[in-house]
Every structure is written in structure tokens, then in C-alpha cells.
Design brief:
four-stranded antiparallel sheet, globular, Immunoglobulin-like, mainly beta, 5 helices
Length: about 500
Amino acid sequence: MTISNFKLQICITILALALGHACVFAQAKNPTEADYYPMTRFTLPEGEVIEPGGIELMPDGKLAVGTRRGEIWMIENPKGDADKMKYTRWAAGLHEILGLAYRDGWLYITQRPEVTRAKDLDGDGRGDLFLTVSDDWEISGDYHEYNFGTKFDREGNMWFVLCLTGSFSSSVPYRGWAVRVSHDGKFIPTCSGIRSPGGIGFGPNGDVFYCDNQGPWNGTSSLKHLVPGHFVGHPGGFKWYDLPEVENAMGPRLDTPKDKSRFHVEKERLPKYIPPAILLPHGKVGNSASTIIFDDTDGKFGPFKGQTFVADQSHSNLVRCHLEKIDGLYQGACFVFRTGFGSGNVPGILTKDGHMFIGGTARGWGARGGKPFAMDRLDWSGKVPFEVHEMRIKSDGFELTFTKPVDKTTAGDVSSYAMKTWTYIFQSGYGSPEVDHTTPTIKSATVAPDGKSVRLVVDGLQIGHVHELTMKGIRSADEKLPLLHDTGWYTLWNIPKK
């Protein structure tokens, strides 16, 4: 090798090292989800199959976990290190537990055929007394007859969503319905139109929501608002309007939606039909929506107070939803929030002090997490991620708010944004492709003086459509970071007049 070639080789090596350091620096500069919301993976007892279906925090600080195999486990020290947790089997022999709630010394258990209350009478760490609260619905023995239950609402009722037989039809009473049961056993038929729920819980204002999964009359998974006396989409359970208790609670049978219509068209035609609050785009944010978790921690879980989180069983992730009510209907935007859970997310709770517990199972439906079952805890690190905080509809477009001030140059440039819309066919066939695509024009982007919000004027808003907004060009004001998640999906039913 000549001296010139040797010097050239040294220069190339130095340049390569410099570029390598620059790449490492650039990678280190862009934080990840785990920097803001680290995850603790539970080490479940070896040899035990704990497929979580319901979770509740007990007064003594233990975490109760009900399983699909009909067991209840108590976990000591659930907010601590995984290797310091202790597991005790509290009950066994129950039937597919998909909800737990504590009230007045009793643990209420959502089973497939009934809701039960139980307690440990002698203090030995095992349930002794089990009493049926209500078994006013029926089961046929079909594999899909899931029953998901809530905690207690403000009136002392639990809400249940009962999956259709085979996820397609209703062969026994109340399959395809939402019902309420008071703590003392009063049974109240509440809503028709359920297909295949994945979870149920509370949202803003204490209102009740559930997640339904893609299939007949559900073009994609969605977050739906449950209002007593109303219909939420699948007519399979309409036959039970003939039961006297249903007519007394809900009135006469409703009209069937028109096959191959659109949600917004049927919304105008059917007065008691409530369309999904948020359509969760299939394959983009998930494939099988499950539990619903409302942030009422007053900031202990980060900057998303008052927002709603929706888990997904198939994608093993968590989606964040900002809901608003326009002309009496909930609608809003969803954003991917946290990925990488151990199994297919099903139940979850968020404690008042800011610990989120998520349980997962992959049985019957594959999950990206990879494990057959898992328990994970999500905590806020105290660092604020650069995210879209809210996406609100306006008469001429959208208002975006952010968790941190934006760089005014990039956020004020319309080329930093792109939008497209679509909807789904409201049909009896399974699912739906994305249809009726449009491409609205973002005419202007005006940044507020404090840099915390941007007004987008949009030409071409579409009622009944998902509005996908990508924001790849936006940077933060301080560190010039991109958004941690740069895409939002807004479901639009009503446009405010101003």
C-alpha cells in the first residue's frame, strides 16, 4: 500500500467512525415509548396457566386476577419489582372469568353463565362463600359466548356485554345484548346490537363504552357508546324484543339496518341507532379491540387526563382515544400509544396512583406479543412525550393540541401534514374493505402564539368517514424531535356550526 493510499484509508476510517457516532447520536436523540412508559413484565408461577380475563385491585393492595380457566389469583406487591411478587390461588372451578369488581367486602365475578359474588370468610387467603347474583341470560355451549363485565357504575349497577352465539347469531336469550345487574341482583335489559365484544368499561362523564370486533355489521373494530334503550349495530338479537321484560325496559322491536349501507346513512334513518364513537382502522391500530381504561388519575399517568385507552388483543398494543361529544354523539380520534405487551391484551385497569395493569392471552386468536399468556404493568416515567394531545373537530377543519410546544416553522407548514378519508360498508357480510376514499385539502395551518396548538383549515370533511391525519413534518420547539406517534384517525359524525 502506498503512503497516499494509506492516508486515504485513514481518512475513510475516520469519516466512517464519525458517521457512525453521528448515527448513534441521532438514534439516541429520538426517544422510544419505553422512555416515557416503561413496562414491567410479571414472572408468573412456573407450571401454571394464568390467562387473565379480569383484574381488580383489592383494598389490601393485592391484585386479583381472574382467568379464562376459571381461577382467581391474588398477587402481592403488584406495584413492586417482578421478582418480589407473590402469587396465591384464591379460587378455582369457575367458568371463564372476564370481569372482576370489588364492593362492600365482596368480590363480584363475571362468569360466562352468571355474575357471582364471593368472599374469604376465615381469612386464610381463599374464597369460601360464592353466591349467584344474577343468571338471567342463557348459554348454549358455543365457544364464542363471551360475557364481559364492568366495575359498578354511579347507580350501583354492573354492565355486561354478551357475545352472539358463534359471533354471528343469537340462539338463546340475550346473546347480542348489553344488560345491567344491580349489586342486589336486579336484571335490566339495556341495549341491543352487540356482536363480539372484547371489553367494556367507563369513559368520559362516567358513560359506558364497549369494544366490538370486526365481522358482520362491523366493518372494523370500534369503540361504541352504550345508551339504555338504543341499538349499536348488529340485529342478530332482535328476536328477544318479544320478551316481556325487554318490551317493558326498551319498547318495541327496532327496524333492521339496510344491508350494504353506510353508518351515517343508517344513523339518519334509524333514530335509536348509535354509530361507533371511534372506528379503529383494521390493520393500522389493531385487529381485535378489547379492554377500555379511562384515565382518572389526575395526571399521575402522564399528560392524558380524561382520555380513554383501548387495548388490542391481536396487535398486543394500547391505543389512546380522545373523545368529544358533538350534537349529542361521541366521536373523536385515536392514536397508537404503547406497543410490545407480552401477549394478546384482554383485561386492564389503571389505579388511582397511576399504575396500569394489562393481562393477555393468545388462546383462540393469535397475538403479536408472542406469549400464550402474560401480565404486564405500565408506569409513567415522569417524562412528557411529544405527542398530539387532542384532535378536535371545528366547523372548517381540526384543532390539534400538543403535549409540548411545536416548532412554529414546521407546524405552520401545510406540507408537514397529509390527510385522507374512507369509511366501511355497513353490511351483513363479514367485515369490510376501506371504501369511498377521498383526499381533503389542508388549506392552512395556523400555530397558536404559545406553540401548544395548531388550527388546520380543511376543505373536504366527510361525514361518516375516518380522517387519517399524518404529521411527519412536525418538530418540537425545544429538541426538534418528531412526534412519538405521527398519525391520528378521527371518526366524524357531526360537524359543529362554529
